[in-house]
Amino acid sequence: MAFPIPTHLPRKKDLDVSTTVLSKMSETSLKALTHDAASAWVAELDVAIRETKARIHERVQADRPAFERQLASAVSVQERLRTLTANVDGLQHTLSDPQTGLVPTLVGTLTQHAALAQEAADAEALSGALGYLARCKQEMQELVALVEGGRLPEAVERYTDVERLLGQQQPSLAGTDVYVDLQRRFRAMKDKTDEQLNEAYSRSVIVNASEIVIRPSVQVRASETVLPLPSILSSLSSTNLSSLMTTLRRDISTYYVDFLLSQAATVELSTVSSLTGTAEHKLSIFLAPQDQEDLKDRIVNVETVLTFLNDNLFSHIPSQASFPISLSRPLTHALLEKFLIPSLPSSLDELPLFLETVHHAVAFEGEYIRGVLGDSAGGYDVKTWADSVGTHYERKRRVDILERARATILWNDDDNNSFRAEMIIVKEDVPQQGAPEPVLPASPPAVKPQLVSTSPPPRQASPEEVAWGFDDEEATAVDEDGWGFDEEMDVEPDVAAAPEPEPGPSSPPPVEKSEPQEEDDPDGAWGLDDENSTDSSAWDDPWGDSVEPVAKPPSPKAPKAATKLEKLSQKGKPKESTPFNSPPAPVVAPAPKVAQPARPKPAAPPAPPVEKETYLVSGRVRELLWLVDEVLKEAAELAASNVFHAKPGSSSLQVGGIISQTAPMVLDLYRGLYPVVAAARVAAPRHAMGFSNDCLWLAGEVAKLLARGDLQEGLRAKLEEAQQRSKMLAECWYDETIGRQVDQINATLDRAEGFVATHHQERFDECEDAVNQVLQDIRKFAQQIKPVLPRSRYYEALGSTVDAALARVLRDILALPDITAAESHKLNELCRVLTALEGLFAPDAAGPSLVVAYVPSWLKFSYLSELMEASMSDISYLFDEGALVDFEIGELVRLVRALFADTPLRANTIHRLQQGHPALGAA
Questions:
Q1: Is it the case that residue 490 has pLDDT exceeding 80?
Q2: How far apart are CA 528 and CA 545, in angstroms?
Q3: Pairing assessment for the beta strands 226-228 and 217-219 based on DSSP bridges
Q4: String of DSSP letters for 508-557
Q5: CA dist., res. 757 & res. 121, Å (int)
């Protein structure tokens, strides 16, 4: 949108003649500029002027009256303007004339007046300043005289006036040298006065580590004026007095409250005259022997100090300082933290004397803290603490007991302090449900382990002994009356319920075993003699030198695993040796049922045969058990002593409750702390199983404690929880140790890479190295845990480890899709390496091996070794005779397909296998 042109501006078409002419002139070039052109332009302008005049004349004539009025008005305005201009010029002359003008005259008059006013003000200021300085001089002279004369209280009052006077300074003296010098001299006199007062106070009140000296009056230095102590204290400034009182309170609290309440000392009072003739009061302290000290004497010493200060000092201190009451909190704190709490006794025999001291402390709080010191608004902290002194005593004992337990846990134990505890194994010939099964002589009868670990002998050493001496003789006695069994093997209510580990594995079926390996078994030859062997010095038989088995049934030799498919004709005797269909673990035949014993009656049948096993327990847990027993005895003695004089209506069972609750805390501390501080130690299987044994033994001993009838319900519940947690921790460490060993075996067998391509010598060597390493690892594991674990748990742990190794080898070999003749031979050799582990399960050199009982995969693994080189007819025969019941049908089918080429015979054999294992009646 274009910008609109205002209406008052001329349009282009209405341009005047002058503009038109000028435009033509500007557009004409220099060559075209001629006389004729200029004449034309002038003529044009003349015409335009005449036309303009004509239009003006016409316009005036058209409205002549209005024009006349406007002309007359313009002439009038011009006349008035001329008159006004003349008047303004006259007024300007009147005002601004330098000689007679109003403004110059007024300015001159005001200047003279200001000069006179300044002279008057200067005179007045000078007079005031001189008067002010005269008063200041007089006051300063009097102040200096008082200070020089040693009249310090008067000087303090005087310099208060001088300070007020100096605060009323004259404006005319601000910043002048005389005023600055006056202030400097005043500060010097004030500082000198304060210094002399401090010096006089320091000689009036002397408090150090050995004595308190209070002089009622003291002579001011460099003067003959003697000032009394109240005058000195009242003359001190509030800031100075507060600082001195803070220092005095600190010194009294440190040297005469904390020290006297924490040390044996004697206090002496004396009053002597100084050289100047003034009397001085002195309190001195001296260290005293602590052999026959009475704790109440410490409170008496503090009473003496407070009485001395009250008689000679407190009354002189200004009330605004509030000094005596300021001592109440430090004194109460010291009485509790420095005296009563640290003096809590550690035995019940010392409690009566300590309680007398506590009563004295309560009386001291009422008489001195609330009376002498005036802290009437404060609380009864000492009395409140004294009302709960029993609780405080028990809490201190709890801390001491737990600290002792911690030291025991951190104690670097060794095997010299260990002992062997007993575990009773109750044998039960319990048949499994199902069809009749042959009895496997080699498998142990069903047992129920019962922990009856022998209690340690009574401890002779005191609990506070630094040397943790243990009795060297091992515990061998068994509480015969503590194991009465009812029909369901339950323990009578009045007998401690011993923890029962899980029963051993079920008995596997009888199977012929291979002939013993011809090569020597270095780890199998442990020198395991029979149970009655008298050689107890060898490591090989850690169980044979402690106890003898009770009512141990004869154990005939177990049948050997099949080797080279020898004597297969004997497989036709199912009642004696043929296993029946009970995969995956073989079953056992019905054993003669043993009559269950009824509850104890005069005519009760005899208890099942029992066998004792021993296991290694560290001296550390024996020490902890002694500590737990001592804690329970101490709690019972405290509750029976009535030393705290229980109030009527209160339960006496509450006394000793905190100490008794410490007993399970000791066990909790052991379970939580020992695995952390001994993490590197328990990484080894021997010590890990040892820790499991310790927890298991503690669980059994806590069960005996629970048989006591004097335990409170809360304590009984916590002990039961500690027992269960100890038992659970024992099983967890037992399983964890086995799990770590199994993980190590799996990691080693990973190097075999599934036993693929063993027909290549390089791959066979790698697999053989892995299998040999597994063999060595298992032997080393057995060597470490055998001296530690009881016989049954040792075989269970070892059996679980061996079974894991065999199961891994079985799984890898059965997963092979194709096995050539060369590979089957190599796999047979690799399997035979692990058969050397059978020697680890021989209780003695002449007895049968228990490997079938504790290694569920043993028979399956043994048959796999033989199947690697068996013919199709041999496999069919074994299958029909029920010898391969440990294998699943799918495993047998895959194995046949991997071993043999695709022929009609293989197809018929696979079809026969897929029909399932032979029925029980068909055998």
A1: no
A2: 12
A3: antiparallel
A4: PPP---PPPPSS--TTT------TT----S-TT-TTTTT---SSPPP-PP
A5: 126
The verdict on whether omega for the bond into residue 553 sits within 30 degrees of 0, i.e. cis, is: no
Distance CA 160, CA 190 (A): 9
Q: Tokens standing for 346? A: 């550690």
CA torsion sign for 857, 859, 865, 869 is negative
Q: How many angstroms separate the CA atoms of 903 and 492, rounded? A: 68
Cα separation, 76 vs 575, in Å, equals 163
User: pLDDT confidence of 643, banded at 50, 70, 90?
Assistant: confident
* pLDDT interval class at 778 (50, 70, 90): very high
731 vs 503, more confident:
731
pLDDT beyond 70 at 505: no
For β-strands 279-287 and 419-427, DSSP reports them as unpaired
- Average model confidence (pLDDT) for the chain? 77
In the chain, the N- to C-terminal Cα span, in Å, equals 118
- DSSP H or E stretch at residue 207: strand 205-207
Per-residue DSSP letter, 837: G
Q: Tokens for 361?
A: 């402390």
pLDDT band, residue 275 (cuts 50/70/90): low
> Residues 6 or more apart from 349 whose CB is under 8 A from it?
none
Edge-to-edge strand order for the sheet containing 211-214? 205-207, 211-214, 279-287, 265-273
Query: Token match 């008794």: residue?
Result: 660
The residue to which tokens 């801390």 are assigned: 399
In this prediction, residue 15 has a pLDDT band, given cuts at 50, 70 and 90, of: low
Give me the residues paired with residue 213 across strands: 206, 282
Contact between residue 260 and residue 302 where contact means Cβ atoms under 8 Å apart: yes
Structure tokens, 512: 């012929």
Q: What is the pLDDT of residues 648-699, one digit of tens each?
A: 444 444 788 888 889 999 999 999 999 999 999 999 999 999 999 999 999 9
pLDDT at 444: 38
Tell how many helices (H) and how many strands (E) occur in the chain: 27, 9
Give kind and range of the element (H or E) at residue 109: helix 102-148
Question: Closest Cα to residue 568, out of 633, 522, 511?
Answer: 511
Region at 324 (left for phi over 0; alpha for psi -120 to 50; beta for the rest): alpha
Rounded Cα gap, residues 56 and 711, in angstroms: 140
Identify which of 264, 296, 267, 308 has the alpha carbon closest to the alpha carbon of residue 361.
Answer: 296
**More confident site: 483 or 819:** 819
Alpha-helical (H) ranges within 313-456 are: 323-326, 328-334, 351-364, 381-387, 389-410
Distance set, CA 738 to CA 317, 575, 796, 800 (Å): 79, 37, 10, 7
Q: How many CB atoms neighbour CB 494 within 10 A? A: 9
Half-sphere exposure of 752 (CA within 13 A, CB side): 29
Interhelix angle for 761-785 vs 685-706, to 10°?
30
Per-residue pLDDT of 554-580, as tens digits, reads: 333 343 444 444 433 333 333 333 333
Q: For residue 685, give the nearest of 800, 837, 788, 542 by alpha carbon.
A: 788
Q: Which residues contact 554 (CB under 8 A, 6 or more apart)?
A: none
Residue 702 has pLDDT above 80, yes or no: yes
pLDDT tens digits, one per residue of 127-174: 877 888 888 888 788 888 888 888 888 888 877 778 777 777 677 777
Closest CA to 298 of 285, 308, 312, 314: 285
Count of Cβ atoms closer than 10 Å to residue 464 Cβ:
9
Residue 41: pLDDT above 80?
Answer: yes
